[in-house]
Amino acid sequence: MNIGGALLVVAALAATGAQAASFDCKKARSEDEKAICANPELSKLDDDLAAAFKAALGLMSGDTKRIAIFRKDQTAWVKERDRCGGTVPCLKNEYIRRIRWLSNPAHQYAGEWRASKAKITFHVQSTDGQIYVMLVPDKTKSNDQQDLIFMSNNGKFSPAKQNKTGEDQIIITSIQFSRRNQDLKAVCPELRLSFGTAEMMGLEGGDKCPLLKGPEGDFRPASPIFSYEPMR
Predict the structure, then answer these.
(1) How many CB atoms within 10 Å of residue 145?
(2) How would you write the chain as a 3-class SS string?
(3) I need a surface site. Which of 66, 171, 200, 210 has the fewest CB within 10 A?
(4) Bridge pairing between strands 119-124 and 111-114
(5) pLDDT in tens, 23-61
(6) Domain spans of the chain?
């Protein structure tokens, strides 16, 4: 059974050294599935992906809405993987990128978030697992139609259990402010995206940072979460 649906328990290595994929190889029909079953390295990567997917589900505490969106995203990735056909290097690359993405807990919040005025876009880069964050001042315009306030590719995920607020956070450092917002660099050296729920994100910058104080700093998701960069 494919991991786009319910996951099977991953089988251990057999005595012969053959590896079991997360779907039934006896039912493999597509070229990519056949290649995965025939190649031990790909089969192991498929097992690793199944484990990463299961671990990611565990972060959602039974939230049925988020789980449904997450499963839909995984199904979309499987269709994207199908484009590789039976080409082993292509399949290997897709698996490595997807596992890297699933392994960063920040992926569960990735997407576009909008406040009363501004919007924040962030995603986990599947090439290196880093968190890219961008804040633009006008939520009604596309990102390429306006100047950004800041961007950073140095966000780090901090789980709720490590924070006094009891919320998941993304801590943003090495912030690159736009030319017209350079004065913020000294007073906003670190920013935090705090997630009280999957439906609310707060931007926090400390007492001296004037960015989006009060309700203006409350963001809600404007695009489906689990935003993933497909292969080009």
Answers:
(1) 9
(2) CCCCCCCCCCCCCCCCCCCCCCCCHHHCCCHHHHHHHHCHHHHHHHHHHHHHHHHHHHCCCCCHHHHHHHHHHHHHHHHHHHCCCCCHHHHHHHHHHHHHHHCCHHHHHCEEEECCCCEEEEEECCCCCCEEEEEECCCCCCHHHCCCCEEEEEEEEECHHHCCCCCEEEEECCCEECHHHHHHCCCCCCEEEEEEECCEEEEECCCCCCCCCHHHHEEEECCCCCCCCCCC
(3) 210
(4) antiparallel
(5) 788 888 899 999 999 999 999 999 999 999 998 888 776
(6) 25-103, 109-221
Residue 28: per-residue pLDDT: 86
Q: How far apart are CA 21 and CA 40, in angstroms?
A: 9
Residue carrying the six token digits 């090439």: 127
Sign of CA pseudo-dihedral 105, 37, 40, 94: negative
Q: Which residues pair with 132 in a beta bridge?
A: 123
Please check the confidence at residue 150 and state whether its pLDDT lies above 90.
yes
